[in-house]
Amino acid sequence: MKIVLDTNVLISGIFFGGPPGQILKTWKDQKIQIVISKEILNEYQRVTKELSKKFPSVNIKPIIELLTIYGKVVETEGINVTVCEDPDDNMFIECAIASNTNIVVSGDNHLLKVSGYQNIDVIKPRNFVDWFLS
């Protein structure tokens, strides 16, 4: 199973565990595949760099490196989606379209509102864990 993972879920999984942490563990165990685009990877790197300054005891770099190596990187050039109220969220839908992935895991209300667009389900982390990982 492949999924697109919103930045907020990645960060929550790293820092707080819970359902986002379960998703990352399942990925680490190679039971799901995380699909990313260059834009998403850049977003992950930008946000984790900012958080590393606030939380220097947490080393996020290895997780980003693992995503670069073991995540499925797809090209989204030529796919221009403008369905989200927050334009920065469109990249997650574009990545799903480019990779034929039907699930975006996110807690972001802007993304949750577009669930169903081109048969892409946007699912909260708890629901993803309950429905697909249990």
Description:
The chain is an alpha/beta fold and 134 residues long. 52% of the residues lie in helices and 13% in strands. The chain has helices at 7-15, 18-28, 38-54, 61-70, 90-99, 109-112, 125-133; strands at residues 2-5, 33-37, 72-74, 103-105, 121-123. Helix 6 (109-112) links the parallel strand 4 and strand 5. Helix 2 crosses helix 7 and helix 3 runs antiparallel to helix 4 (61-70). It starts with a strand and ends with a helix. The model has no long low-confidence stretch (mean pLDDT 94).
Average pLDDT for all residues = 94
Number of helices: 7
Strand arrangement in the largest pleated sheet: 3-2-1-4-5
- SSE order, one letter for each helix or strand: EHHEHHEHEHEH
Question: Which structural class should the secondary elements be placed in?
Answer: alpha/beta
The CATH class designation is Alpha Beta
CATH arch. level architecture:
3-Layer(aba) Sandwich
Number of strands: 5
CATH fold label: Rossmann fold
Distance between the termini: 14 Å
Q: What is the strand content?
A: 5-15%
Outline: globular
- Rg, alpha carbons: 14 Å
- Largest sheet properties: 5 strands, parallel
Helical percent range? 40-55%
CATH homology-level superfamily: 5'-nuclease
